[in-house]
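If I may wish for something, please walk me through the protein I am sending here so I can picture the backbone:
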Amino acid sequence: MGTEYCPVVRHVSHWEGTGCGKEMVKARSWFWNLEPSYTVTFALEGRKVIGELEAQMLRAIDQTGSFSQAARTLSLSYAFVWNTISQIERSVNRKIVASERGGAKGGRAELTSHGRQLLQAYLELDSRVDRFLKGHVPSEAYMPGAGHVRPNLSFMGSDCVVVEKVLRRLHDVNPRMSYKMLNVGSWAGLTAMMLRQADIAGIHIFDEIESSYRPLLSKFGLSRSCALVHGYKRQQCLMVRKGNPKRIKGIGDLLRKDVKLANRNLGSGTRILLDGKLHELARTKGIVFGTLTKRIRGYDSEMMTHRQVAIAVSSRRADVGIGLTSIAAAMRLDSIPIAEEQYDFLVEKRVRNSYVRGFFDTLRTREFQRQIEATPGIKFCKESGRVIS
């Protein structure tokens, strides 16, 4: 699926500064008070598929579990919501909402895996553009000198301590090397590769139905241009303070009134993992996803990195956070394992950047792997650092 988004400034009249001194400053002062506004749209073959209103519909259906309730929430007609969703489904040739009409308990509706992927991708892109315009994109970089100079190596995608250590080692070996690491989440990493804004993207999401990256890469138009490089296994956990003072045992404890969560940002693979667990919990309890998440204190919080989550827990701003076991250990927190996942990389098939090759050469060395595996929660294998598709 192609994406088209465009930041636009609304309500700006044409003006020309005349004179100088105080008059010039006065003439321009109103301009600097303007704030950028933007719209995000996903398009397919030049035709709009989903924009802000359509995303609101999908989110309302996800939260209420009903077409009629979603329509009332948005002050729209039932027919308009139903027809809009049907139009999206025809455009993408996928079922995005599974629904049941009528019955003793009334109709029910829930997003399919395709519907959740579409909404998640839209929300992440919208959040990414907003953070960009506000200058809130977290990064680690070594950029000598001044000016807008492209770094020798640019990484965008999911936050990972292993990536940080590879980049730092490359810089230690070659102090003149410049690099930039933007922790913007897996979905934004895919987008960055599509827009050729990064040399390497780190991802840990895949198609839920086929348990493969292949459908995702096809949707982003990356199957022909990019190669998937095998990474390593990472353990995701619930982070708690030493001694686990709230006696948290699992995902179900997030519903407790005395427990506050530090959550990850929309579009991150970790947030997608937690939402998947919460969808399962909602089904077992017979309630809709939105009703369940409203009962979780801190669910709407958005931490951009695993380390930010750990800091929120250690500083007592939250009782529990979701993130990497390796970060929990480094921050001297206890951890409750909830999943083991595969973390992989995307690169262009025709690698012209020697620093990209150096990145994976470092990742493949047993000496480096042993150093990383000394911290719990990371496991390498023979294929680590090698192209798998």
Summary: Residues 325 and 377 are 5 Å apart (CA to CA).
